[in-house]
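We treat protein structure as text, and this decision shapes the records that our systems exchange. Below, we set out a record of this kind in full and without editing:

***
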Amino acid sequence: VQLVESGGGLVQTGGSLRLSCAASETIFRFDHMGWYRQRPGQQRELVALITRDGNPDYAAAVAGRFTISRKDVGNLVFLEMSDLKPDDTAVYYCQTKQGRFIDWGQGVQVTVSS
Protein backbone atom coordinates (compact mmCIF):
# COMPACT_ATOMS: atom_id res chain seq x y z
CA VAL A 1 0.00 0.00 0.00
CA GLN A 2 1.31 3.41 -0.94
CA LEU A 3 0.41 6.27 1.39
CA VAL A 4 1.07 9.91 0.57
CA GLU A 5 0.59 12.59 3.22
CA SER A 6 0.15 16.30 2.59
CA GLY A 7 -0.91 19.43 4.42
CA GLY A 8 1.84 19.96 6.94
CA GLY A 9 3.54 23.26 7.58
CA LEU A 10 4.24 26.03 10.04
CA VAL A 11 1.45 27.47 12.14
CA GLN A 12 1.22 29.69 15.21
CA THR A 13 -0.04 28.51 18.57
CA GLY A 14 -3.82 28.26 18.50
CA GLY A 15 -3.90 27.79 14.75
CA SER A 16 -5.29 24.98 12.64
CA LEU A 17 -4.06 22.60 9.95
CA ARG A 18 -5.56 19.74 8.00
CA LEU A 19 -3.46 16.75 7.05
CA SER A 20 -4.47 14.45 4.22
CA CYS A 21 -3.38 10.93 3.39
CA ALA A 22 -4.10 9.32 0.05
CA ALA A 23 -3.98 5.54 -0.08
CA SER A 24 -3.32 3.55 -3.22
CA GLU A 25 -6.06 1.06 -2.34
CA THR A 26 -9.62 1.26 -1.13
CA ILE A 27 -9.70 2.37 2.48
CA PHE A 28 -12.37 -0.19 3.38
CA ARG A 29 -9.94 -3.08 3.10
CA PHE A 30 -8.03 -1.84 6.14
CA ASP A 31 -8.75 -2.82 9.74
CA HIS A 32 -8.04 0.79 10.52
CA MET A 33 -6.27 3.86 9.26
CA GLY A 34 -4.41 6.06 11.66
CA TRP A 35 -2.22 9.05 12.25
CA TYR A 36 0.92 8.78 14.35
CA ARG A 37 3.49 11.39 15.20
CA GLN A 38 7.09 11.49 16.27
CA ARG A 39 8.08 14.49 18.32
CA PRO A 40 11.75 15.48 18.53
CA GLY A 41 13.67 13.04 20.70
CA GLN A 42 10.63 10.87 21.34
CA GLN A 43 9.19 7.63 20.05
CA ARG A 44 6.44 7.49 17.50
CA GLU A 45 3.02 7.63 19.15
CA LEU A 46 -0.58 7.15 18.13
CA VAL A 47 -2.55 10.35 17.55
CA ALA A 48 -5.84 9.08 16.14
CA LEU A 49 -7.27 6.19 14.21
CA ILE A 50 -10.50 5.32 12.46
CA THR A 51 -11.73 1.77 12.15
CA ARG A 52 -13.27 0.09 9.13
CA ASP A 53 -16.66 0.73 10.73
CA GLY A 54 -15.87 4.42 10.99
CA ASN A 55 -15.29 4.58 14.72
CA PRO A 56 -12.62 7.08 15.76
CA ASP A 57 -10.23 6.88 18.67
CA TYR A 58 -7.91 9.59 19.95
CA ALA A 59 -4.90 9.97 22.16
CA ALA A 60 -5.74 11.85 25.34
CA ALA A 61 -3.37 14.67 24.38
CA VAL A 62 -5.36 15.55 21.26
CA ALA A 63 -8.94 14.57 22.14
CA GLY A 64 -11.26 17.51 21.62
CA ARG A 65 -8.75 19.32 19.39
CA PHE A 66 -8.12 16.87 16.54
CA THR A 67 -10.65 15.09 14.33
CA ILE A 68 -9.98 12.11 12.09
CA SER A 69 -12.24 11.45 9.12
CA ARG A 70 -12.16 9.63 5.82
CA LYS A 71 -13.52 9.88 2.29
CA ASP A 72 -13.88 6.77 0.17
CA VAL A 73 -13.66 8.72 -3.08
CA GLY A 74 -9.95 9.14 -3.53
CA ASN A 75 -9.18 6.74 -0.67
CA LEU A 76 -8.47 9.60 1.71
CA VAL A 77 -8.11 9.99 5.44
CA PHE A 78 -7.84 13.38 7.10
CA LEU A 79 -6.64 14.80 10.38
CA GLU A 80 -8.15 18.14 11.26
CA MET A 81 -6.02 19.79 13.93
CA SER A 82 -7.15 22.84 15.84
CA ASP A 83 -5.93 24.80 18.86
CA LEU A 84 -2.44 23.66 18.02
CA LYS A 85 0.26 23.89 20.65
CA PRO A 86 4.06 23.92 20.40
CA ASP A 87 4.01 20.41 21.90
CA ASP A 88 2.18 19.23 18.76
CA THR A 89 5.31 19.90 16.72
CA ALA A 90 6.24 16.59 15.13
CA VAL A 91 6.48 14.57 11.97
CA TYR A 92 3.04 13.11 11.35
CA TYR A 93 2.67 9.74 9.67
CA CYS A 94 -0.28 8.04 8.06
CA GLN A 95 -0.61 4.34 8.80
CA THR A 96 -2.80 1.48 7.63
CA LYS A 97 -3.28 -1.95 9.14
CA GLN A 98 -4.72 -5.02 7.45
CA GLY A 99 -4.25 -8.17 9.44
CA ARG A 100 -0.56 -8.43 10.21
CA PHE A 101 0.38 -5.97 7.47
CA ILE A 102 1.18 -2.41 8.47
CA ASP A 103 2.17 0.34 6.06
CA TRP A 104 3.43 3.86 6.64
CA GLY A 105 3.57 7.06 4.69
CA GLN A 106 6.72 9.11 4.39
CA GLY A 107 5.64 11.62 7.01
CA VAL A 108 4.86 15.31 6.96
CA GLN A 109 6.31 17.99 9.23
CA VAL A 110 4.04 20.08 11.45
CA THR A 111 5.67 22.92 13.32
CA VAL A 112 3.77 25.04 15.83
CA SER A 113 5.49 28.26 16.83
CA SER A 114 4.96 29.86 20.22
About this structure: The mean pLDDT is 96. Residues 8 and 110 are 5 Å apart (CA to CA). The chain is about 0% helix and 55% strand.
